[in-house]
């Protein structure tokens, strides 16, 4: 893959994130399975772009910038689509989106202040993508199998996916606060 432009892999990753987002927004049970698959492909492409850039000696600041911008667009479109779906109320998705965006912002803010990129925290991007895949698959299995003894569409009033958004919001905001604290201590 040394002849492949890593930015094209990043763009392909974004395209698969858009497809997954559309599948969530369609509110189709089988869309959960397909969304999980497309998120997996998106995540693999996202992991591959940096590896290809380094192996082919094409790593650059521009490429790093493109990768981070596309990651944020992917995060926003996926969480936004979930918030527009019947799987999750919009306020919960907004809470998750704030946590995810602030986590990323704090990481890059440290870098902007000359402290180096901050990756520490409770829930990173790879963790979020993994949870999106697993929870979507579990939600799909329980919806399609129609288990009457366990209704994952109504766990204290919310679906499993909605609870995942709550977890993203809590973990994301705690991670942002943790990173802000680390940055603050490093600046003194």
Give a verbal description of the structure.
The chain has one domain (6-187): Four Helix Bundle (Hemerythrin (Met), subunit A) (Up-down Bundle), CATH 1.20.120. Helix content is 76%, strand content 0%. Helix 3 (61-84) packs antiparallel against helix 4. The N and C termini lie far apart (45 Å). The relative contact order is 0.14. The protein is built from 6 helices and no strands. By secondary structure, the chain is mainly alpha-helical.
Strand-helix topology:
Blueprint: H1 6-25, H2 29-55, H3 61-84, H4 90-112, H5 125-145, H6 160-187
- The CATH architecture would be Up-down Bundle
The total number of structural domains is 1
The H-and-E topology, N to C, reads as HHHHHH
Terminus-to-terminus distance: 45 Å
Give unreliable regions as ranges: none
- The tally of beta strands, per DSSP, is 0
**Can you tell me the CATH class?**
Mainly Alpha
CATH topology: Four Helix Bundle (Hemerythrin (Met), subunit A)
Largest sheet: none
Structural class: mainly alpha
